[in-house]
Design goal:
The structure holds 2 protein chains of 2 kinds. Chain A contains 15 helices and 30 strands. Chain A starts with a strand and ends in a 5-residue tail after the last strand. Chain A is of the alpha+beta class. In chain A, a hairpin with a 5-residue loop joins strand 11 and strand 12. Classes of the chains: A alpha+beta, B alpha+beta. At the A-B interface, helix 8, helix 10, helix 11, strand 21 and strand 23 of A face helix 11, strand 7, strand 8, strand 9 and strand 11 of B.
Chain lengths: 593, 464
């Protein structure tokens, strides 16, 4: 969930009202936001870097507000204020539109060359005119760009936004790709020119930029945007040129957004990004959004930004029935309008026409509109009612059996352990004196630590680790677990299946084979399987590398092997950092279903 | 009553010291201490308060002197009137020490020039053996009569030593008696058979002590709460889903839930992917085509996500990130029925997230999930059923916050008022499954599916 940090006093000023922290928290809750933290830059610095570094830092109160992941339109102070003001009916939802250049001039143009195809083939552009920045607006502008980069642009891997002082450059602009050695410019915040190759090594140590280098690092060609005089605007998605940087005095801005291949990018993400960006700013900074043309390598020409509004028609009845309320079409239209979805009753029955603004890319179905109606109505104002759905309950047989056995194993003096289903290769192989290839283990490709390399193929390592962690407890230690292991199985659609197993261990000064054997007898008695060779159960001497030679038996039930019991091999005991003899039983309980 | 116990019984109401008792009776103090202890074990016959005191005691040599006289006295007494040759005197056991002491006391003199070798003669008629007298005083327990200087001098001669003695101050107890009976520790089968228990007195139990732990096993606390949740679902008529498949394909875990392929949850950072077996190889083909279409082009009233949906992405195996993957399989199965029947499903099982373990992060936890599918279910119904569910856990104050979840719309976070923390805490997530998820499965248009989920671990952390 993205978090937006806003200055409390600026927020209240923009909302035209002061709230107590509790009141504002309540308002957030109703609207689907969460006031996560009340803090200040000073507090944050003290917490993160200690008191000394915080000296002189601002103690202006900051609200950290959690915004739902789909609401990119609320990612900055301006967006939040707009959303809340419209919600509180203090403001009408704004309408966004773009204009042609004043006095019939030519639109700015961005020409994409075919070299970009291999690295970053998509771009859109827009122009903002007649801006007057204040310090705060300027900061918010930069902050919003960063928020979009982190969220909808997925840390610039999908989309990168570049903003430029239009009065320092002259179109038409060219978006192309070149070998890193042939790109040379003075980047933002540097005092001299670098080649692209030099920049990549320069930024290796930059705490902010180093995270984006991987996006193009290994490409033969790097994307680059020039103006008509050969001045570099930006090398997306890494850095802009210093020449065209925006400042407090900037009046006109050229925006370019570039994106990687469309298999990864929602076709609209690029378009939405630029829409969001211009819309936020239009609303509060009050300037003109001017169209810009983009020419593709195949000669196609598109005009951006696409500030497209869409209309959906749905019935009041649909919303009433789905939400469980009983409101007139008029009042539903009013509810939706409060959510920045301008709505009107069409006059035809209870049909409502809903206009979806370009900033609400998350509205893709009538159910999204229904949700907004429910939010505006107030979730907590909806009457709670029990559905009349009549059904008979059934337990999953394997879980029912598990529940029954667990109770009886504790009654037999064994204590239940709960251990992780993931473990290291070593746990299920080397430590049990097995070869990893014979385990039929499912392997994880991207574990963050060696503790989660495989799904367990046995419950034994978990129990032995539990004993190791409880060595201080009085002996004997008697533990069990009935849970799933995972085994590769070609017959399943995913190539693996779970297997419900029962494992118990007895850890004491003497091995206690007879104790574990007695437990088997008790379990079989509970399962109503009598001792015997054919229809019953029996054990017979077996060799298993996990167990001490001559102290291991295989367990058969109705002629079928279901597992092993025995005294653990001394190497197994010491590999789990244990010191006492230990006996164990491990059986598959699925045959008893 | 043994003789020593009787002796230890206080003779005076005001109490007495165990040392004095020993002195009076002329027995070793340790005998009296033993008697005190055995009387104490009988209950309140006597009360004894331990104290410690310092006193003077004779050394072995001191005791010999008290008995036989000091070395110098013995030397003096051994000398006849006609004197004794010095070499003969020195052969006596006390000779050396006694000679020099007697000399310095001027009791004897040495005639070195005597014919036949040096000879010792008495110089006084009679002597007073003060050393012996002093030691005898100490022996009688009257060391207080000696001056400190005298005692220290004797200590220097290694005839006296100062010792610390632990003794008891004994007084009558609340149930003092001069006749006592030995108390029994436990009732025995013999006593029951013979009836002798009627005459016996039994030693009181120490009710302050802890009992012996019963010889039984225990269920894991988290699993006990799992059983409790399971019971609640069963009471509410919910059927358990087969969640015993930790390995799932991206298709069922994400795609079938209308979660787009570029969604951050599908990153390597958040989800455990499987390298072996890396890919799932079997899907219901018709359904897969419909899922592909709704993602890439939309349909069923939806705009879709408008991206190139790839089967390769859907095939990737992973450790399921939620049990909703199983709900999707179950709803698909339900949609394949000849005629739709309403269902209520639940599951409580493990789910996995690619986390590094720390105090607040687990790579696997138990997800509790409830699902209801029927015609015409409303958001009000979802809140109603959640209210019933949480009431069974003793949680009655609920409120709902709008939230975002890729496969439910509306989505609601469930908050409960925590009486202990005095604030609203999040207890779960809930929502109505999106039509883009349900309609491609083939469920009838009017059917709504409401669902909720919570983490067992988190619930146990905040509510137990």
């Amino acid at each position: 969930m993205p978090t937006v940090s806003v200055k409390r006093d600026l927020l209240f000023e923009a909302l035209g009202q002061k709230y107590t922290d509790e009141e504002f928290d309540e308002l957030c809750f109703e609207f689907g936001l969460e006031l996560d933290e009340i803090t200040s830059e000073k507090e944050i610095l003290i917490r993160e870097q200690g008191g000394e570094k915080a000296e002189g830092a601002s103690d202006v109160v900051l609200y950290k507000i959690d915004v739902p992941a789909n609401r990119y339109d609320l990612l900055c102070l301006e967006g939040l204020v707009r959303g809340l003001q419209v919600f509180k009916e203090k403001l009408e939802a704004p309408r966004y539109k773009r204009v042609s250049p004043a006095d019939g001039g030519e639109p700015q143009r961005l020409v994409i060359t075919e070299e970009t195809a291999s690295v970053r083939p998509h771009a859109v552009a827009a122009v903002l005119r007649n801006i007057t920045f204040t310090q705060e607006r300027y900061e918010s502008f930069i902050e919003l760009q960063e928020k979009l980069h982190q969220n909808i642009c997925r840390k610039r891997t999908l989309v990168a936004i570049g903003t430029h002082d239009l009065d320092t450059i002259s179109g038409p602009f060219t978006y192309t790709a070149k070998p890193p050695g042939e790109i040379r410019f003075k980047p933002l915040s540097q005092s001299r020119e670098y080649t692209a190759a030099e920049l990549m090594s320069l930024y290796k140590t930059d705490s902010h930029l180093r995270h984006y280098l991987h996006i193009i690092e290994n490409e033969p060609l790097y994307p680059i945007i020039y103006d008509s005089n050969g001045i570099v605007l930006s090398m997306p998605p890494i850095i802009n040129g210093d020449h065209s940087k925006i400042s407090l005095n900037t009046k006109n801005i050229f925006i370019e957004c570039t994106a990687t291949d469309l298999t990864k990018v929602n076709r609209f993400t690029l378009i939405i990004t630029v829409c969001l960006f211009v819309c936020f700013n239009t609303f509060f900074i009050l300037f003109r959004v001017e169209e810009a043309e983009v020419v593709y390598p195949d000669g196609r020409l598109s005009v951006y930004p696409e500030l497209a509004y869409r209309t959906e028609t749905l019935s009041g009845d649909f919303i009433n029935k789905r939400v469980g309320i009983n409101e007139s079409a008029e009042s539903i239209a009013q509810l939706l309008t409060r959510m920045c979805l301008r709505s009107e009753v069409s006059g035809e029955g209870d049909l409502i026409q809903v206009e979806i603004p370009p900033t609400r890319a998350d509205v893709i179905h009538a159910c999204d509109i229904m949700e907004d109606a429910a939010i505006a109505y107030g979730f907590n104002n909806i009457v709670r009612s029990t559905p009349r759905t009549y059904t008979v309950a059934n337990q999953l047989p394997v879980n029912k059996l598990t529940e029954l056995l667990r109770q009886d194993l504790t009654a037999a003096g064994f204590t239940e352990a709960l251990t992780f289903a993931l473990c290291s290769e070593e746990d299920i192989a080397d430590k049990l004196r097995k070869n990893i290839t014979e385990t039929r283990a499912v392997h994880i490709s991207n574990p963050k630590t060696a503790d989660f390399q495989v799904a367990r193929t046995s419950l034994l390592p978990g129990l032995l680790k539990t004993i190791a962690a409880n060595r201080k407890m009085p002996l004997p230690l008697k533990l069990f677990e009935i849970s799933d292991v995972v085994l590769k199985d070609e017959t399943k659609d995913v190539g693996a299946r779970n297997n419900r197993r029962l494992c118990a261990v007895y850890y004491n000064k003497s091995p206690g084979f007879e104790v574990i054997h007695g437990l088997l007898d008790r379990v079989m008695q509970l399962l109503d399987v009598k001792p015997g060779r054919n229809q019953g159960y029996h054990i017979q001497a077996a060799e298993d590398s996990t167990f001490f030679p001559g102290r291991c038996a295989e367990i058969f039930s109705c002629g079928k092997s279901i597992g092993h019991l025995g005294v653990l091999h001394p190497d197994v005991i010491s590999r789990f950092e244990l010191t006492m003899p230990c006996s164990a039983i491990d059986i598959d309980i699925e045959p008893f279903l | 009553v043994s003789p020593s116990e009787r002796k230890a019984s206080p003779k005076v109401d005001g109490g007495t010291d165990s040392q004095d008792v020993a002195a009076d009776l002329g027995v070793d103090h340790q005998v009296i201490v033993g008697a005190v202890k055995s009387l104490q074990a009988l209950g309140e016959v006597i009360s004894a308060e331990q104290k410690s005191s310092r006193h003077w005691e004779l050394t072995g040599e001191g005791r010999e002197i008290a008995e036989q006289g000091s070395h110098e006295a013995r030397v003096f007494n051994a000398i006849p009137d006609e004197g004794l040759p010095q070499n003969q005197l020195m052969k006596m056991p006390s000779g050396k020490v006694g000679f020099s002491k007697a000399m310095s006391n001027k009791w004897i003199r040495l005639d070195k020039a005597h014919e036949g070798g040096p000879r010792v003669f008495k110089t006084v008629e009679a002597i007073e053996d003060t050393v012996r007298d002093k030691l005898q005083l100490v022996q009688k327990g009257q060391s207080a009569k000696l001056e400190d200087k005298e005692k220290n001098e004797l200590k220097k001669r290694k005839l006296l030593s100062e010792v610390t003695v632990k003794s008891y101050w004994i007084t009558k107890g609340s149930s003092f008696s001069t006749t006592i009976t030995k108390q029994e520790t436990e009732l025995t089968p013999e006593m029951i058979a013979s009836g002798s228990w009627k005459e016996k007195k039994f030693k009181p139990y120490n009710f302050e002590a802890m009992g012996v732990a019963p010889d039984c096993g225990h269920l894991h606390p988290l699993m006990k709460v799992r059983t409790q949740f399971r019971q609640i679902f069963l009471e509410m008529g919910f059927t358990e889903m087969p969640t015993n498949n930790f390995i799932e394909s991206s298709f069922w875990n994400f795609d079938s839930l209308f979660q787009p392929q570029q969604h951050p949850a599908r990153d390597q950072h958040d989800t455990f992917f499987i390298s072996d077996p890396a890919l799932a190889h079997e899907f219901p083909q018709d359904y897969l085509e419909r899922v592909k279409k709704v993602h890439s082009e939309g349909g069923y009233g939806s705009q879709g996500y408008k991206y190139d949906w790839k089967i390769e992405e859907a095939q990737k195996n992973l450790l399921r990130t939620h049990t909703t993957a199983v709900s999707a399989r179950m709803l698909y199965k339900l949609a394949q029925q000849e005629k739709f029947t309403p269902v209520k499903y639940f599951s409580i099982d493990r789910v996995f997230r690619n986390e590094t373990l720390d105090a607040t992060h687990l790579a696997e936890f138990h997800q509790i999930e409830g699902v209801v599918a029927d015609y015409g279910l409303t958001l009000g119904n979802l809140m109603g059923i959640l209210h019933q569910f949480f009431t069974k856990l003793g949680i009655t104050k609920l409120r709902f916050k709008p939230a975002y979840n890729p496969y439910t719309e509306p989505s609601m976070e469930v908050f409960s008022y925590h009486e202990g923390l005095k604030k609203w805490v999040e207890v779960g997530n809930s929502g109505v499954f999106r039509p883009e998820m349900l309609l491609p499965m083939g469920l009838p248009e009017g059917v709504s599916v409401i669902a909720w989920g919570l983490s067992l671990e988190r619930y146990v952390d905040t509510h137990t």
